[in-house]
Design brief:
The complex is a heterodimer of chains A (154) and B (212). Chain A is mostly helical. In chain A, 73% of the residues lie in helices and 3% in strands. The longest helix of chain A has 28 residues. Chain A starts with a helix and ends in a 6-residue tail after the last helix. Chain B is α+β, with helices and mostly antiparallel strands and 212 residues long. Chain B contains 11 helices and 5 strands; from the N terminus they run ααββααβααααααββα. Chain B has a 5-stranded mixed beta sheet with strand order 1-3-2-4-5. In chain B, α5 runs antiparallel to α6, α5 crosses α9 and α8 runs antiparallel to α9. Chain B is elongated. Classes of the chains: A mainly alpha (154), B alpha+beta (212). The interface between A and B is medium-sized, with 29 and 25 residues.
């Protein structure tokens, strides 16, 4: 059972972390003001906070995602990743509940436009994968194992 | 010595710091340096004193609703800083706005007769009317030109793609400057996207620019 969890956690880690890292990286390639504008549509945060958030949040996404993929501070990274997807789900869900039509969810900058239900489905799956990665303690093929001096898989 | 280095290399915090730094390096290298774009904009699209210390560049599309709704805030911002700002309008036209190019051509044509700002105001005031036209709304554009007493022949010449070069130059600059939304405003090189950012950060950015 633990072996099955360990093996399924590896792709889960790569997918959940990879998607979050990609989302952060794409946002960092654009101007933070563009991301702030996308967040403005959610009407969740005072406008004055949006620009500082837009400058910081993509870095957190990138770091959490890369750390999870590489398996460095794996559990903490998996938890941060799960929290991120939970926040995205809640934010998009709240716009649906309030009848706000999002033109662009802002999830992947302007490179990928997702309808709110598509974004929620994707975030939901990725959240589950991040939770799976968090539950695993074997951390196959990870820097954590290498730092402990354990073989990559055992 | 090598044992010390090896144990350092396996320290989680050291490895974490290296990983975080590699992420920063990858982003910095991939970003490159955003260009400032060509600054060659026709004189009729400049407003405000030539001696103003700060240049406010607005990238717009006449068919974009937000570009219309930001105009009162922009006028208010300009009015509050009459000696500090020189406004320049540039085009960032969207493919899904099918009359954006004809509208820009019309505004350029009006600009050649010294009425760019008045014509732009008419385009925004009547945005819904011409945006929803099934055929190219040239008749409406001519009607607005007549309201401003523009020379009809000269105005209509503008529709023969006479001024497409200057519009394309703006589009290339927008690409180079990574403009992905309209309206995008630059206070010198500080970027703002949309009305709320102008209202919330405009004064702060202007102040920072004036202080140099």
């Amino acid at each position: 059972m633990n072996k099955a969890l360990a093996w399924s956690a590896l792709p889960a880690r790569l997918l959940a972390g990879g998607a979050l890292a990609a989302a952060g990286f794409i946002k960092l390639m654009g101007a933070p003001e563009e991301f702030a504008m996308a967040m403005e549509a959610y009407r969740l945060v005072p406008v004055a906070w949006l620009l500082p958030i837009a400058r910081v949040a993509p870095w957190l996404e990138l770091w959490a995602g890369v750390f999870l993929v590489m398996g460095c501070f794996t559990r903490q990274a998996a938890l941060a990743t799960a929290v991120a997807y939970g926040v995205f789900l809640t934010a998009i869900g709240s716009t649906l509940a309030r009848g706000i039509a999002l033109e662009n969810c802002g999830c992947f900058g302007r490179s990928l436009h997702l309808a709110p239900w598509q974004a929620m489905a994707l975030d939901g799956v990725l959240l589950l994968l991040a939770v799976l990665a968090w539950r695993d303690r074997a951390h196959y093929l990870s820097l954590d194992r290498w730092m402990k001096g354990s073989p990559p898989i055992s | 010595m090598s044992g010390g280095l090896a144990s350092l290399a396996r320290n989680r915090f050291v490895v974490g710091a290296v990983l975080a730094a590699l992420c920063v390096g990858a982003v910095v290298l991939s970003r490159g340096k955003a260009g400032s774009g060509s600054t060659d904009v026709p004189a009729h699209r400049h407003k405000g004193p030539a001696t103003a210390p700060v240049l406010l560049t607005e990238f717009l599309d006449f068919q974009c609703p937000s570009c219309g709704t930001i105009q009162p805030a922009l006028r208010d911002f300009m009015a509050r800083h009459p000696n500090d700002l020189r406004l320049v309008v540039r085009y960032k036209l969207w493919r899904n706005h099918k009359w954006a190019w004809p509208a820009a051509r019309a505004a350029e044509s009006a600009g050649r007769q010294g009425k760019f700002w008045e014509y732009a105001e008419l385009l925004f005031a009547n945005q819904k009317e011409w945006s929803e036209a099934a055929e190219e709304p040239r008749g409406l554009f001519v009607k607005y030109a007549q309201q401003l007493n523009l020379d009809a022949k000269r105005f209509e010449d503008g529709f023969s793609r006479l001024w497409d070069g200057v519009i394309e130059r703006d589009m290339a600059a927008a690409e180079e400057m990574n403009v992905e939304s309209t309206p995008t405003i630059f206070i010198n090189k500080r970027r703002l996207v949309g009305e709320q950012q102008l209202k919330n950060y405009g004064d702060l950015f202007l102040d920072l620019e004036k202080r140099g």
